[in-house]
Amino acid sequence: KQEVTQIPAALSVPEGENLVLNCSFTDSAIYNLQWFRQDPGKGLTSLLLIQSSQREQTSGRLNASLDKSSGRSTLYIAASQPGDSATYLCAVEVLGGGADGLTFGKGTHLIIQP
Amino acid sequence: DAGVIQSPRHEVTEMGQEVTLRCKPISGHDYLFWYRQTMMRGLELLIYFNNNVPIDDSGMPEDRFSAKMPNASFSTLKIQPSEPRDSAVYFCASSFQAKQSRTGELFFGEGSRLTVL
């Protein structure tokens, strides 16, 4: 069964810093990996989707990488801002067997201090 | 498009009562997912549909849970009878199957927060 782990569970950094959030998964047989953002009391918003054949995706100040062989992904946030404060979740889409759809990590709760 | 719409946003009910959660996916999307989120277990997939057909319900915790999708624009998740341990935020999400991805980018509703007393 696919398991997704995110480290750290919580992170607090001063505004302006660059930071990296980590995601690891146990089964490398995936279709893709997605990073989501969740604000308190809200649903999830998709940030980046990396296909299994890709190594990275970029959107503005966000860059996500994928290393399938090692079962790892990172989300890099450049020049962090207080508005980046949220919970960030990664999820992998598994290759058949058992429940399909996405398997989520429990997220990293990020606080950017003004 | 208004995005994925869920109702009610909040529901408080007593143990034993029937609860029905509703979802309207984004028009044109062919996948619909129901997830449950708790502090302890995070986000768990309950069931998903493809073109209105349930594909995998192995995540549904018990027979007390049922889900239907009578047409492409509406789905329900029903809990009968409800129990305190069902208290959670229930999310509906939809997606359109992309060429190289089975489910594509996922769009979530804002969730239905259920409290069972």
User: Can you tell me the residue ranges of chain A where pLDDT is under 50 for at least 5 consecutive residues?
Assistant: none
The helix/strand series of chain A, from N terminus to C terminus, equals: EEEEEEEEEEE
Gap between N and C termini of chain B: 36 Å
Order of helices and strands of chain B: EEEEEEEEEEE
Structural class computed from helices and strand pairing of chain B: mainly beta
Number of helices of chain B: 0
E-strand count of chain B: 11
What is the terminal separation of chain A in angstroms? 41 Å
Biggest protein-protein contact in the assembly: A-B, 26 and 25 residues
Mean pLDDT of chain A: 91
Tell me how many strands of chain A there are.
Answer: 11
Percentage beta strand of chain A: over 45%
**Unreliable runs of chain B, pLDDT <50, ≥5 residues?**
none
Structural class of chain A: mainly beta
- Beta fraction of the residues of chain B? over 45%
The number of helical runs of chain A is 0
Biggest pleated-sheet summary of chain B: 7 strands, mixed
